[in-house]
């Protein structure tokens, strides 16, 4: 062999013998050659052996092919095990980095899947979550869009984009789950020393008067909903309960039946009637009860 040939073969020999990848390639090549030789010998033996039937011969051909494939696969896995292990660690690190980088997006998509699988709410429902309340107007994979409803049960005209990840960590209230009627509750605070029995009677009278037209329809709706879920129907008559958050603090909790989307209007009517009835006979509030508001005064030119 000439010096030029030795120089040309030296890098190849160095790659195959000193490099780990080179040794694995050489071992893989040797394994494949040995497997092919073994397969050829086995198939020649099958062809030269007299068999009781052609079906049995074909069955042995198939077995030899499957055995050669499994032997080759096992041998390659053994040869390349260190590289495969390093690749697995690298892939796991990349996957962990991707998960950390897209954690919020994954949680939002998971929340959307939870909403769809659990039928938590639909477009048109009024929901409240994490202090945010409104009517659902758009459903997305990452966000839910609400048309905000304020404390007075009136729409503010503002849109709220909620990340669906909130469904995984925050409780959600669907105020229109019963679709037609709900049992709406609201507190009425009292001053220290105020006659709570008189306030209770006035609230009950105002609630009974305002809710009279809804009692029967609400009772029928509650009976249908309770029957669908195997529950006892609740009472729908207006009620007033006592609450004492502190020793010197008293609240009256009013519960009324109301249309799911108009409970705010009924609450305002009851409170207005209650305040009119509680006002002293000679006070300005009592004199203005039931009267339209005065017209606005004209502004002077500045």
Describe this protein's structure.
This protein is of the alpha+beta class. The C terminus is likely disordered. The chain folds into three domains: 84 residues, no CATH class; 57 residues, SH3 type barrels (Roll); 102 residues, Alpha-Beta Plaits (2-Layer Sandwich). The chain has nine helices and eight strands. The chain is elongated, with a radius of gyration of 40 Å. The longest helix has 29 residues. A five-stranded antiparallel β-sheet has the order 4-3-2-1-5. A three-stranded antiparallel β-sheet has the order 6-8-7.
How is this fold's topology laid out?
Elements: H1 3-18, H2 20-48, H3 54-79, H4 81-101, H5 103-118, E1 126-129, E2 132-139, E3 143-149, E4 155-163, E5 172-174, E6 181-190, H6 196-211, H7 215-228, E7 239-246, E8 249-259, H8 263-278, H9 284-288
Antiparallel strand pairs: 1-2, 1-5, 2-3, 3-4, 6-8, 7-8
Helix pairs in contact: 1-2, 2-3, 6-8
């Amino acid at each position: 062999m000439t010096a030029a040939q030795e120089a040309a073969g030296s890098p190849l020999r160095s790659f195959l013998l000193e490099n780990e990848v080179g040794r694995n390639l050489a071992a893989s090549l040797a394994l494949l050659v040995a497997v092919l030789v073994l397969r050829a010998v086995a198939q020649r033996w099958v062809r030269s052996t007299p068999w009781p039937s052609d079906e049995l011969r074909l069955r042995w051909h198939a077995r030899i092919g499957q055995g050669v494939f499994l032997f080759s696969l096992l041998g390659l896995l053994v040869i390349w095990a260190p590289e495969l292990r390093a690749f697995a660690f690298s892939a796991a690190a990349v996957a962990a980095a991707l998960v950390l980088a897209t954690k919020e997006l994954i949680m939002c998509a998971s929340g959307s899947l939870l909403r769809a699988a659990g039928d938590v709410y639909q477009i048109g429902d009024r929901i409240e979550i994490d202090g945010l309340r409104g009517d659902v107007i758009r459903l997305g994979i990452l966000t839910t869009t609400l048309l905000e409803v304020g404390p007075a049960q009136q729409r503010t005209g503002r849109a709220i984009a909620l990340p669906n990840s909130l469904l995984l960590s925050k409780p959600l209230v669907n105020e229109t789950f019963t679709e037609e009627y709900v049992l709406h509750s609201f507190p009425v605070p009292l001053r220290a020393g105020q006659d709570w029995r008189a306030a209770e009677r006035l609230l009950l009278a105002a609630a009974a008067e305002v809710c009279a037209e809804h009692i029967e329809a609400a009772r029928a709706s509650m009976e249908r909903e309770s029957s669908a879920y195997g529950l006892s129907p609740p009472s729908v008559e207006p009620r007033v309960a006592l609450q004492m958050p502190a020793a010197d603090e008293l609240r009256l909790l009013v519960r009324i039946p109301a249309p799911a989307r108009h409970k705010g209007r009924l609450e305002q009517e009851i409170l207005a009637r209650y305040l009119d009835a509680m006002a002293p006979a000679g006070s300005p509030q009592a004199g203005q009860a039931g009267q339209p508001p005065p017209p606005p005064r004209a502004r002077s030119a500045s």
